[in-house]
Amino acid sequence: MRHVFIVNPVSGKADASGSLVPKIIQAAARQGVDYEILLTERPGHGVELAQQQAAAGEPVRLYACGGDGTLNEVLRGVYGCKNAQVACVPCGSGNDFVRNFGGSAPFLDLENLIQGEAVSMDLIETDQGLAAAICSAGLDAQVAYGIPKFRRIPLCGGSMAYKLSILQAVSGPLGHRLRICADDETITGDFLMLALCNGSTYGGGFMAAPQACMNDGLLELVLVRKISRLQIARLIGDYQKGLHMQGDQVAPAYRDIILARKVRSLRLDTLDGRPIVVTRDGECAPYSSLRAHVLPAAAQIVLPRSVLNTELPALRKDTILNR
Ligand SMILES: Nc1ncnc2c1ncn2[C@@H]1O[C@H](COP(=O)(O)OP(=O)(O)OP(=O)(O)O)[C@@H](O)[C@H]1O
């Protein structure tokens, strides 16, 4: 099997490629694998490179070296190619995908990752494109959407841009009138936001669905009703830590404002004439509707050896390939 490292030099806070490339060369040499290193040159280039690498039909393992956006591009590029496995080398800002598996450290241990095995995992297909972990809509996505604008202001760093974007989002009209069709159930009401989760975590560590399993053929839908600014301030800390849920149930303190379902498909339509911001693995844009469904076992994701030996909600062990 060929090992191809697709490196995004602009992901994360600094260009990681300078330090990463020598580590890749050393790890690949020590593991004695046939490898290649490719750098992305522009947005979307990761999709093209992954497509080209998988097109020959030979077994190939692609390492997406960057953040969640780079992983998303590589997964899009190989979607439908049974010969391609995908690994994540987390060098981005949020790196939410690997949080499902205990965090970045084992994935940055390249020899551990090269020795890893592929696990068949679900993806989310939406009418806006694929998502690996979470597709969300509403206030949280609106905050993420606003950050780049504030980052363009001189001396405005990442944390200040995030705070200014929150301030802007909560100063405007809160919530949307939505019609949500979750499988066969239709729910109409005023909602602050919703998260459709294959994985547990997004937005740099917000744990929307702590029990989400990435290979059970189901998605966790978390709906937050329209609430006051004071209630948002109370909820936000618990939502970040996943304390709004108790196992598969909504925690008693939040049962009047949060709904949770396990679903295969979702249709969302805005009924108030205002577009709602949607984010897929961190890529944001406003839409008036969204269609999404689970793609069971659509990707072969490589997990480091040490992660495969750990019990995690994100992973059912019976789908490990190559064993
Ligand atoms: N050479 C390049 N120049 C400019 N943009 C690029 C280049 N290569 C890739 N990109 C784009 O960089 C964007 C950001 O990458 P990525 O999401 O991996 O990093 P991040 O935002 O730092 O991490 P995270 O999403 O985990 O917070 C992606 O949308 C990708 O399309």
UniProtKB/TrEMBL annotation:
It holds the Pfam family DAGK_cat. PROSITE patterns: DAGK. Transmembrane segments: none annotated. Its cofactor is Mg(2+). It comes from the Bacteria. Residues 1-130 form the DAGKc domain. InterPro entries: ATP-NAD_kinase_N (IPR017438), Diacylglycerol_kinase_cat_dom (IPR001206), Lipid_Phosphate_FormReg (IPR050187), NAD/diacylglycerol_kinase_sf (IPR016064), YegS/DAGK_C (IPR045540). Gene3D superfamilies: 2.60.200.40, Probable inorganic polyphosphate/atp-NAD kinase, domain 1. One of its GO terms (molecular function) is kinase activity. Keywords: ATP-binding, Kinase, Lipid biosynthesis, Lipid metabolism, Nucleotide-binding, Phospholipid biosynthesis, Phospholipid metabolism, Transferase. Belongs to the diacylglycerol/lipid kinase family. This is Diacylglycerol kinase family protein.
